[in-house]
Write the structure tokens for this entry.
Amino acid sequence: MKKYYFFILCFLLFGMQDTFSQNYIENRESKSPSGSKTTIDLMALDSITYCLAPNEPTIFEYDLRGNLTLIKDVFSKTENAYNVDSLLISSLYYIWDYDSNQYREHEFMEFTYDNNRLLVQEVMTVNIDNIWLTNYRRNYEYTNGYKTRQIDYFFNTDSNAWIMSSKRDFVYNTDNLLINENSYYFDNYGNEHIESQISNTYDQNDNMIYSLYEQFNDTSALVNGSKTYFIYDSSNLLTEQLFENYSIYNGSTWLPSYKMELSYNSNDLMLSRYNYMYNNNWNLHSIDSFFYDNYDNKVLVKAYVQWGVDLLCNHKFIYNFDYNYTSDEILKFKPSPLNYTQSYLDNYNHMLTHYINANNYEPSNESTWSYDTNIYNYSLKTFILTLPTNILYDGTNLILYPNPTNEKTIISLEGVGTEIKILIIDIQGKEVLSLVEKPIGNKLELSVDVSKFKKGTYFINIRSGKYSQTKKLIVN
């Protein structure tokens, strides 16, 4: 369980964020010529100590550019290598061998990118009885920066050839939102069969309001499925989510199964989540309550379950912070192609020092609480950042204001006389807006409406010839 909690914590605390604080980089770029080395000092996570196993911490190490090169615990370790643009190019995974009393190489992953830094291939090799066997390959195809196809292969040792095993096609609407995801598999004769499909529908604010998942058998007949309905308030906050399920083993009909009702505070932070199960009618199953500090850090989650005729708390998540450090002063884990999916990310404003997972299997008895505490240990490290080729600075003045904003932001750029491409990318790396503008008299002044953007962190990338610069935009 300790290892499970560790990976959940890594997603919650770090998730898909930049390797360095953008503010730190930008402050030093203005003082350094293109291609120079920049030294920055940041607090970096060294280890996580577990109260139930204090002698078995999880250890973290980094290279000089702040890329995470090692994750090691008592069960396993992972060694990562990066290219000059800080893109992950290989990952070697070890498991602990109790017979030899040392780590044993188990899996090796290699990653390849195109000229746009998009992942186009990953290959897995597995170590079996000290023999490395090529096992798996996945290729990606893109159109205008969006993934349109994913193809999986397995290596046939008898024919010494790659065999296509499955593929997945992605279709987007004019707003670049995913509307269809179709998965196929190939039989032993190379024939293609539909395996599953996902269809999404959105409202005029680009909120997903309906999602249909269907899974088929080898005769293309529907076997399992789910429907999800989403309801939002006037601020585009999700307030209700309703689920229906289909199964040939349960009458071959669509039945309601689960429902969530969500509420928020004045800062649009979630306050409660009511969970209902369906059995002829909707029955309240549990309630999750969320609590925040004055900096909007989530500090407590309480889960209540039906206990007799009462709702009693049986689970708590407690978060403690060091308020002397903000997120701009803390090194963040780098995104990795190994993370195929994303969870809900909590963007804490300060340094997390303790995560406490508390359980009570007899919620009517306060003395039966058990606490599993994880302690985060940091130290100040000096990193040398060599600016990659896609982040150049030549003295050109780029200003972004107001920032943060929830209405519009002004992009002001001086010193560039050629055509300018402007990309706005969300924290997940998804392009939300693309513009091409021509400056007048080597100056560009452009107003961008972000009122329909979801709240969060975005990156505005400006490119013109060899000039390229990225700034962070906060939509609040």
In short: Residues 5 and 167 are 32 Å apart (CA to CA).
